[in-house]
Predict the structure.
Amino acid sequence: MFFRSRSRLADSCRLGIAAVALVAALGLSKPAAATSHDFQVLGLQPPKEEVEAPDFTLKDLNGKKVQLRDFRRKVIFLNFFATWCVPCRLEMPAMERLSKAYKDKGLVVLAVDIKESAKTVRTFLQELKVSFPALLDADGSVAFTYGIRPLPATYLIGRDGKILWRAFGAREWDNAASRQYFSRLLSDGKR
């Protein structure tokens, strides 16, 4: 018993240190002049410095383990949500349209549900006719590591595994400005 609780404490400390480091690196900074328009129009927050997206392993709705690193060489649109979150519900259809428009160009949309059952999440996604993968953060540890407070929260991770930006709150992810941004980003092939 003593070793289990000590192990949990060590794990909590490691997660806490990782979360503090990630939050510090993602502090707001002035974006580069070339992209400041995108950041302002879309309401995105760039990191102060390059930071690697923390890897994680979560189960999908069928119980299969999925690792974030499995999607290296793709641009990952990582969205944290909950079924009870009204703004999350509002942005899901736009995320589905974004996923369909850009999945063949290297964009992967991953939705991470925080602390809900597979049955609840499956019903929610079926109701919204969402086809992109959903992962279950059963204990909230991944959300904690990413410093998620308000929902929805979205991170964009480049092909190199570095965080490009984060956004808190719902967005119309497939509006004209967003499509223009993703078209440019994905045609570049570097990030």
In short: Confidence is low (pLDDT under 50) at residues 1-34. The beta strands are 57-60, 65-67, 75-81, 107-114, 134-137, 153-157, 163-168.
